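Researcher: Next entry in the queue.
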Amino acid sequence: MARVVVNVMPKAEILDPQGQAVVRALGRIGVSGVSDVRQGKRFELEVDDSVTADDLDKVAATLLANTVIEDYEVVGLEVK
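Model: Structure for this entry, 80 residues:
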């Protein structure tokens, strides 16, 4: 078994209201110096040897990310 991580983030040109809310909240809790926050998703998949890189790309592009407004990255395999 191996663990694959897929990170999904809004595309740079897409407004991220959740990230902006975090930036505003930072000032209220006394944290300064953070100019931008982007909020995304992380998926961890446990896969066996039959799952290929093409399979992982297909899963990420069709199920995990909305590719119109999000980019994704398949980080890699961690062998367990």
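Model: DSSP finds two helices and three strands in the chain.
Researcher: Noted, moving on.
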